[in-house]
Amino acid sequence: MNILQINSSARSTGSESTRLADEIVARVAAGTAANVVRRDLAAEPHPVLDEAALQALFTPADQRTPAQAARVALDDALIAQVQAADVIVIGAPMYNFGITVQLKSWFDAIARAGVTFRYTASGPEGLLKGKKVYVAVTRGGLHKGGPTDVQLPHLRTFLSFVGLDDVQFVFSEGHGMGPDAVARARAEAQQQIAALV
């Protein structure tokens, strides 16, 4: 079994979403000969999708400059990791009601027409099928199920768009609301993980 862990916090240390992702990976891998690949998007930030990247992606492979080929190769490496994974675990903190710029850059890198999704007569079809996904969602406030939870629809929509439909979410909220709220959030997250994995 190949497990891909994506840590998308802006912090490489002390991140609650990474801590939860680590716990999920440990449970999934327990008792197996799992191969775990971890990508820390804070320690290894992926370049944002800018004009130069778009030009590289839309230039035929045999016509790319060395710089364009190198830029596309960065995205190719992330796509290959996802394609090779049986299980994907994503640490996804909420920043200002959305996903982090680190996670958005990863999403932009792995969304490739004809590779991870394709357009058909009946609409887009995701091509990253048959994978299990766990998303550890952490927030400073309480947003789940409320009007301020615009992060969850984004996550669901993007993952489904590329074919990742078997997704389980683990929530840990209230981390900006004092020690008691943090302890409660961690205990509830533990119960969710135990029930899902």
Automatic annotation (TrEMBL):
* UniProt xrefs under Pfam families: Flavodoxin_2
- Please give the SUPFAM superfamilies that the UniProt record associates with this protein: Flavoproteins
In its UniProt record, a GO molecular function of this protein is: oxidoreductase activity, acting on NAD(P)H, quinone or similar compound as acceptor
> Catalytic activity annotated for this protein?
N,N-dimethyl-1,4-phenylenediamine + anthranilate + 2 NAD(+) = 2-(4-dimethylaminophenyl)diazenylbenzoate + 2 NADH + 2 H(+); 2 a quinone + NADH + H(+) = 2 a 1,4-benzosemiquinone + NAD(+)
Record: residues binding FMN: 9, 15-17, 94-97, 138-141
- Report the domain of life of the source organism: Bacteria
Q: Which residues form the Flavodoxin-like fold domain?
A: 1-195
| EC annotation from Swiss-Prot or TrEMBL | 1.6.5.-, 1.7.1.17
Question: Is the keyword Transport in the record?
Answer: no
Please tell me whether the keyword Plastid is annotated for this protein: no
Q: Quote the InterPro entries the UniProt record gives.
A: Flavodoxin_fold, Flavoprotein-like_sf, FMN-dep_NADH:Q_OxRdtase_AzoR1, NADH:quinone_OxRdtase_FMN_depd
Alphabetized UniProt keyword annotations: Flavoprotein, FMN, NAD, Oxidoreductase
Q: Which cofactor does it need?
A: FMN
Instruction: Describe cofactor binding as the record notes it.
Output: Binds 1 FMN per subunit.
Task: Describe the function of this protein.
Answer: Also exhibits azoreductase activity. Catalyzes the reductive cleavage of the azo bond in aromatic azo compounds to the corresponding amines.
PANTHER family this protein is in?
FMN-DEPENDENT NADH-AZOREDUCTASE 1, FMN-DEPENDENT NADH:QUINONE OXIDOREDUCTASE
Assembly description: Homodimer.
The similarity annotation says:
Belongs to the azoreductase type 1 family.
Q: How is this protein named in the record?
A: FMN dependent NADH:quinone oxidoreductase
Q: What is the lineage of its organism?
A: Bacteria, Pseudomonadati, Pseudomonadota, Betaproteobacteria, Burkholderiales
